[in-house]
Fold this sequence. Notes:
Helices cover 37% and strands 23% of the residues. The protein is of the alpha/beta class. The strands form 2 sheets. Strands 3-2-1-4-5 form a 5-stranded mixed beta sheet, sandwiched between helices. Strands 8-7-6-9-10 form a 5-stranded mixed beta sheet, sandwiched between helices. Strand 6 and strand 7 (128-135) form a beta hairpin. Helix 1 (35-47) runs parallel beside helix 2, helix 3 (103-115) crosses helix 6 (240-257) and helix 4 crosses helix 5. The longest helix is centred in the C-terminal third of the chain and has 30 residues, at 182-211.
Amino acid sequence: MNEKNALLCLDLGNTTCRGGIWSDNKIQQQRSIQTRDFLIAAQEWIDVWDHKSKIGYCSVVPDAEKSLNSVLASKSYEKPFCLNATTQSLLPITYPFPREIGADRIANSYTVYKRYPLPAIVIDLGTATTFDVVSKKGGYLGGVIVPGPQGMLDYLSNRTALLPQLSLNHNDPTIKAIGKSTELAMLSGIRHGYVPMLEGVLRSLSQELVNNGESIASVVQTGGEAKNFSMECAILDPSLTLEGLALAYFDQQSLNYK
């Protein structure tokens, strides 16, 4: 590992916190922890990595970011790089409210802007599922937010009197369309309905780009649920967010040294 250019990248998400070491132009030593566990064991989790003198992170959970900064304040780390719409300057943003863009969405879009054919659409499947549209000229244009697969199941349980609380089970990919119980009917809705929903949103985004004189060159899926709801037209890139953190960090370092 090239320690001089190594960076610990952390993605602090609503359900899961993920991390990895960027070295030799790729993410290595990837690990994850439930966000609720990170809040009480951030120090132990960070100490696992071999190299952590330089840290870059993005966060959509203020409490997780507070836990991270509490740990860093007690150690002799360099000041961490917090990626968001205002701390980077090489990804153009034509979205009218840049401060509203989730930091993970900025990281995803940064990687796509630098490494994929454009225009591109990023689909990040997690607690929420986000679509982000990135063009060569306009950079980050905007996108779509829908509930994640588990979030849809949670909604059914929370908003109805009799439907049970269920967790996604990917051990049985053969769930039939006709559910023979309440539980199976709910799981069928996610198993057989979620990808068609993604495809419908993608078609609408594609058509809007066509109306503006552009056609999609890349569709990239990432996030914890991406492998379970993969689309034939998409490239699966599980390290997209962490890679975007690293690319933005080193790009900003280069600009600061000029």
